[in-house]
Structure formats: structure tokens, C-alpha cells
Write a structure and sequence with these properties.
With 199 residues, the protein is an alpha/beta fold. The chain contains 8 helices and 9 strands. It has helices spanning 3-10, 13-16, 37-51, 65-75, 83-90, 95-106, 109-123, 148-155; strands at 27-32, 61-64, 77-78, 81-82, 133-137, 165-175, 178-181, 185-187, 194-195. The strands form 2 sheets. Strands 1, 2, 5, 6, 7, 8 and 9 form a 7-stranded mixed sheet that branches. A two-stranded antiparallel ribbon has the order 3-4. Strand 3 and strand 4 form a beta hairpin. The longest helix is centred in the first third of the chain and has 15 residues, at 37-51.
Length: 199
Amino acid sequence: MTIQELDHKLNDPGFQDPKNGDIFYNFFIYQYPAENEYDIREQIKEFKEHLIRPTNYVDVLCLNLFEEFCNYLKTKQLMRRPMLEYQLEKEKTNPDATMSTLVRNAHSEGFIHYLHEHIMAHVNIEDDYRRPYVFVHGIGSMYPYIRTNELLTLYEQYNVTYKYKIIVFYPGHRENNSFRLFGLLPDHHTYRATLLINE
């Protein structure tokens, strides 16, 4: 699916209806070459700007997963300091322990709940805008702390499928029944998500 085709799909009133689709899984994955990461991030901003115009009145929540993770770590205290600050310092002397801590926190109930609260605060705003989409990017920056399939699986318990669709921007491609992050790193799991491809 090209950028233009994705733009057309996002502007389709039928696709904008969260109730139109799989009632159990509202995850959609848009794949692109990893070298296009920063172009895609700019494109995401353009999507948001186009969708919020008066012809659409669609307000999109854009989540950079890595930034959200850093913000989450800032809210946690460790040794009377924000965890992020503590881990950045600790990494210089004990990188293995830091890695272990970050992986554990990326998979934690606390982080997933933090994301959920952010999403629900956005979709529950009462005004003239519709909020059918949550764009998630920064997937590559979160490696190796958490993989996409792990994130989506952990989020399932919080997912409110009839309120929004989650569009994951994935820097990689599919090979058979698995995905390759950056086109290099095999992920031996399939995603319970709809792959946005040419129809």
C-alpha cells in the first residue's frame, strides 16, 4: 500500500468507523522500509493535519512508543530519583542490568496501563471531533525492549475495540507468517492484526 492509498483509506468514512471491522482485533499494521523512518514520521504529521481539517473533523492521537516509554520511566521513582535518570547513569557501569530493567518495565502492567490511560483520555474528550484512530510509531526505537507482537498481546486486555482503531507503523516487512523488523530481525510470531496492503 502506497502512502497515497493509505491516506485515501484513512479518509474513508467507512474505515473511520471503529465498529466497521473485526470486533475482536482493531490493530492494523502499515509496513515500510526502515530507511524511510523519518519520512514516515513526517507523513504521520501530515495525516494528522489532513484529518483534523473541517472536512473531516478527525483528531488523531499519535504515540511515539519510545517517547511514551521514556515519559513513563520519568514517572517512576528509583533511589529517590526518576527511573529514567537513574537508568541512564547506571547504564555506564552496568549495561546488562539496565537492559534487564528496561525490558521488564517495557513489558510491565504499569507501562501498558499508562498507554491505555493516555489513549482513553484522548478518545473520551467531548467536543466536535471524532477520534477513531491511534497512530503508533517508534517501534524500531523500542527494540530490543519490546516487540510489536508482545505489545499488542499485552494491550489486548485493555483494548476497547469499538472506540478506536490502532494503526501501527512498522519499519520492516512480512516473510511468510512472520515479520522482520528493519528487514533483518526475524520475529517468529504472527500478529493478530490486519496488514494494510493493496486491496
